[in-house]
From TrEMBL:
NCBIfam families: HAD-SF-IIA. Pfam families: Hydrolase_6, Hydrolase_like. This is NagD protein. Keywords: Carbohydrate metabolism, Hydrolase, Magnesium, Metal-binding. GO terms for molecular function: metal ion binding; phosphatase activity. Its cofactor is Mg(2+). GO terms for cellular component: cytoplasm.
Amino acid sequence: MVDRSNVECWLTDMDGVLVHEQAALPGAVELLAQWQRDDTPYLVLTNNSIFTARDLAARLRAGGINVPEDRLWTSALATADFLKQQLPGGSAFVIGEAGLLTALHEAGYIMTETDPDFVVVGETRNYSFDAITKAIRLIGNGARFIVTNPDATGPSADGPLPATGAIAALITKATGREPYVVGKPNPMMFRSALNKIGAHSHNTAMIGDRMDTDIVAGMEAGLHTVLVLTGISDQREIERYPFRPDEIISGVHELVRSGDEG
């Protein structure tokens, strides 16, 4: 067994680790309860920027998982935190939903279509040709280009949907400008999460189900990395990459202490 005795804080991905299609995965409820009882600092991370933390907490409760909203860290919150550090009190033209708009407002940002400091693109189910055109023109006029996450597609009951990365690629093609991407696999998202809970990389672990986002970002941020096989990665997927997680487990139920399993 890999020694994780120095791990005092945890970061964990949400989809494929704790939930699958909004249903709790085995051990998820027990692990979160264990962390709560032990007063263990932790955050649940997601690249989804559509929902506010309050909305996500409600959605998780509907699936039987209790995560307080202050224990959720989204790419929208990480983006707002990054922009607040870069330019306090700045302005942005935003393509996104309530999660991103709320996070930026709470960070002190002004939403504007007139000479914004940044164009910020996040997840939405209502991409507008007019809004994308406006974003392209504003970037051409000097606005800095920020994207909440790189995911090109998102899941739905009917199959993949175009997501933030796909729209960002369209804007890049039209402007010749590459965006700065805040969410996973950028270790920036993990560093801001560590700051939020007062943790340090040397005593924090990251649980994820994707080699190309969770594990590589955790590794680059200096975290102990744990890959679960309840999401999209399997042994064949693992072998594609030149790096390895510190641990590979079948699911988060393996992290629940004996006697804490319900």
